[in-house]
Amino acid sequence: MTSAGIGTSLPPRESRILLTLRGKNAIDYQAAAIPVTPDYFPALGIRLLKGRFFTEADDADHPHVMIMSADTAQHFFGDGDPLGQTLSLPVFRDGAQRNATMTLVGVITDVRYSGLDRAADNAVYRPFAQQPWPNVFLVARTASNPAAVTTTLQRQIAGVDRAIAVSAVSTLGDVVLDAAAQPRFRTLLLGTLAALALALAAVGLCGVVSYSVSQRSAEIGIRMALGATARDVVGMIVREGFVLAAAGVVIGVAGAYALSRTLEALAAAASRRPIPHPSSLRRRFCSSFSLVASYLPARRATRIDPATALRAE
Prior knowledge:
The chain is built from nine helices and nine strands. By secondary structure, the chain is an alpha+beta fold. It has two domains: 3-169, no CATH class; 180-312, no CATH class.
């Protein structure tokens, strides 16, 4: 085991303690309040940007300190150096609340506590010794198989106090997969609906082009009687089908750009692979479907007998 720490929140699960704070420009916003022990940050791989992490010296007998996420520090202290800045924040202890002046000693990277499909949370971290909390997460980083460490951890916890209940043990990967389940379902649902819409569009385009061919059978017959080849007829009809498809593509790409942030958020939550760009989707799918939808009635048009078409006219 390389490091272990405790904290009241475990990303990407939502923080249990929320503070309504007033940042610069007198704008109120919410921030997660997260009491942690010194090794909480290394155990989760959270990087330090400025200052220092908590130490064992940051206890109830020493001045109150705090660490902020980068966005939170920006909200309060602007672009200047935030280290050493102070802020009056509530302290919860023994069922009572009081305010205490806290000094910022470190700035860390932003962390998503409210879900993978949401922006990183504003967060204020406190030393656990200065702000204890009854329900916590124990986070342990190990170089070996996590399952092999579970029994050891439970034995060590029972050795400290048998009254401490360990409710569940899981890897951080399992926690992330569980948090991604709902965004993954929404992504799958959107993908399924998009595929159905694309299929309906192809069927509709095929129907429109087929109707157009049936109405222009005499024209096609005259063209073929005057020397037009089957390739010429197919090319003419397919080009006209592409014109209809292009109009739909323009509208669809505009809608895709409008929804791109939502789609990117869902894709980031459900998978590490980036969502394809709308123009890429257009090139890969719309062109091929419009080609197939236009080619089928175009091939039927080449079977028109010019003499029969002219007699019908």
